[in-house]
Amino acid sequence: MTAMYRLFGLNVRSEIDLPELTPCAIEAEPEVTIRLSDIGADVSAPGLHAVDGDLVFVAEDVARYRIAAGRTIVVEPLPNSPARNVRLFLLGSAFGALLHQRGLLPLHANAVEIGGKAVAFMGESGAGKSTLAAWFHDNGYPVLADDVCVIGFDQKGAPRAYPGLPRLRLWLDALESSGRSVQGLSRSFEDPSSRVDKYDVPIAAGSSAPSDLPLRALYVLEQGDEFLIEQLTGVAAADAIIANTYRGAFVAAAGTQRQHWESAAELARTIPVYRLRRSKRFDRIDEECSGLLHHMAAGNSGGDAR
User: Fold this and answer.
1) Rounded-to-integer distance, Cα 184 and Cα 258, Å
2) 279 in the same domain as 200
3) Are residues 260 and 130 located together in one domain of the fold?
4) Among 15, 180, 259, 299, which one has the highest count of C-beta atoms within 10 angstroms of its own C-beta?
């Protein structure tokens, strides 16, 4: 049985149940189709591989995924692999490869809606993206995307951010510091021997941004004792976007290097990109997020905030 979903601005028809997403009635033809089948390729080494014009992603001990033309993902789960883990890599790395095939710009970022526009926080795993998004969520700001924020450009060349998975992925310490409990939550990766205390926190429909939004600014997260916001310009701004591209190592295999660089350069030219240095101390998050809101309210287009 198939169901239709909407993810990253795309209509998705899937033969695999995706409880992380909300099924929707879409009359238009799907832009992405997810099928459950043998991938038809003799590839077993973990990672991404180019096979006969397609991309094959192998998640060790989980599943193999064949991604074709930015339109199709064939999923072949490995024996006894938990369905949750199969979906984790499907909606993560496999979809990341598909987004690159389509020439979109997926950022390793969280995004929230502030004043009718999207503000995104980029950074590697552990940089505090979801912790910031959780603070904004708990203070009444809708969450647009968690971990992967897809950027596209409208007909006038203005950047827009598209809704991602309606959930927050929080480490145990961040989850508890926000007043939440692990009761009723699932680990992001199902493994009895895993020591990775990361949990998926669902976001209610009323607390998530339902449609794409104009992108207002990007903040690159760094850790430091002193709270600091300073603008990056020119090549430094574009390089920050390139460095924080989700599954950026897939770009070459997808053959979209030039388009990827041009999109990053155009994004850096169009909106401000800031370096945000913060302590990541939970007892300072109210102060630091208030400083961040003050920076946004001031309409800064340059300089720094301390």
Assistant:
1) 45
2) yes
3) yes
4) 180
